[in-house]
Amino acid sequence: MNVILGLLLAVFPLLAHSRTSLHKAKKYKCIEVEDKDEPTHYGWNRADEELKSIGKMSAGPPVQALTPKPYEAPATRPPHLPTNIPRDHAGRPLVLSPQHCDQVRKYAAQYGVRDVLPWVKSNCNFAKMFVPDATCEEINILVGSCYANKYL
User: Fold this and answer.
1) DSSP per residue over 72-87, as a string?
2) Is the Cβ–Cβ distance between 70 and 121 less than 8 Å?
3) Which of 31, 40, 97, 101 would you call most buried, defined as having the most Cβ atoms within 10 angstroms of its Cβ?
4) How far apart are CA 140 and CA 144, in angstroms?
């Protein structure tokens, strides 16, 4: 009997708590009902709008199409290369750009070379690793163009 009484005392608070839980709430389904007293078209009648004739309306005088002026690009001349620049066997000028001359300077500093032109003349096969299609004479002219333009 004590066991049954103990079980009832243990279960009763749980049953009472589940019935008075604060987290339970009733849910209602809402349905929107249209009110017949309110006008649905807010002051205009659709039938009146359909009766208006579009042909009676005028938008004013017709607008003339404007023709744009043709664009005239400023005339530029192609860059002028002097004719006395030496060229390789493919017809390309043997002149290095400032960026390439700067790259030559960086490689020379990396290998500890102070004067590039004599070093290239004496180490042509090593320089051919960077310009494999050029002859030794063409490589000398390319490096010399950096000295002529004072990039090195």
Assistant:
1) -PPP-PPPPPPTTS-B
2) no
3) 101
4) 6
Q: Locate tokens 């709008």: which residue?
A: 49
Tokens of 46: 């659709």
| Dist CA 117 CA 96 (whole Å) | 14
Domain ranges across the chain: 98-148
* Cβ–Cβ < 8 Å for 96, 145: yes
**Alpha-carbon gap, residue 45 to 49, rounded angstroms:** 7
* Nearest C-alpha neighbor of 130 from the set 118, 146, 143: 143
Residues 88, 140: Cα–Cα separation, whole Å: 12
Alpha carbon distance 95, 144 (integer Å): 8
Task: Read off the pTM.
Answer: 0.45
- Please write the tens of the pLDDT for every residue from 41-88: 566 666 666 656 565 666 677 778 888 888 888 888 876 656 788 888
